[in-house]
């Protein structure tokens, strides 16, 4: 899993546990890909301050994951749901199309929850 | 959802974010169903102390859920997976049994992750 995807997932799961100030800075850096200098200028703190804050946030988010493992769990479920989808693709025939479609709809709903 | 089930789920999801002391007392009260007096005697704190600690833990766990909604999310997914299972039961015939069984296995794996 690449670093950006991982950071984004961690933020999706645990971001609400950061303070609103932390969230604001972290989002600018990770999600909006602004530079440390840009963020520093707009937040009125030093470049080093932004750097430290982002690092602390990453550490906090990873700390929650180390304890709760929810990203890991969700990724495993997502993989299984995709497996169901692939199995449905493989098994689909003219005769069972309607039944397959019914199950596929539910499995897509699950992916949307994830 | 009954209160015991709800407390258990909250503890399953967020219990690791409590301190080990909190976990010990909370488990005795909620999961092992010991009385406040029994826990107080074995932990060497007052009955009121146990009561307050359990109340604070419930509040903390619910606070995490209010922010992250992970119990809610997981319950929704579990419902969908059960829906897939019911749909498979409905659609199973002598001819498609093997295919249905393949999908059912994956959906059971998902339930185990939850």
UniProtKB/TrEMBL annotation, chains A, B:
Does DNA-binding count among this protein's keywords?
yes
Q: Print the keywords alphabetically.
A: DNA-binding
Q: Which InterPro entries match?
A: RNA_pol_sigma_r3/r4-like, UPF0122, UPF0122_fam_protein, WH-like_DNA-bd_sf
Top-level taxon of origin: Bacteria
Q: Name one GO molecular function term.
A: DNA binding
The record's function comment reads: Might take part in the signal recognition particle (SRP) pathway. This is inferred from the conservation of its genetic proximity to ftsY/ffh. May be a regulatory protein.
Which family is annotated?
A: Belongs to the UPF0122 family.
Identification of the protein by name: UPF0122 protein H6A20_09420
């Amino acid at each position: 899993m690449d670093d950006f995807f991982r950071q984004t997932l961690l933020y999706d799961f645990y971001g609400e546990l950061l303070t609103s100030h932390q969230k604001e800075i972290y989002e600018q850096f990770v999600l909006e890909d602004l530079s440390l200098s840009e963020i520093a200028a707009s937040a009125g703190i030093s470049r080093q301050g932004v750097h430290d804050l982002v690092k602390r946030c990453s550490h906090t988010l990873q700390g929650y994951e180390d304890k709760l493992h929810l990203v890991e769990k969700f990724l495993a479920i997502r993989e299984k749901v995709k497996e169901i989808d692939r199995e449905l693709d493989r098994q689909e025939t003219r005769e069972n199309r309607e039944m397959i479609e019914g199950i596929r709809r539910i499995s897509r709903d699950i992916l949307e929850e994830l």
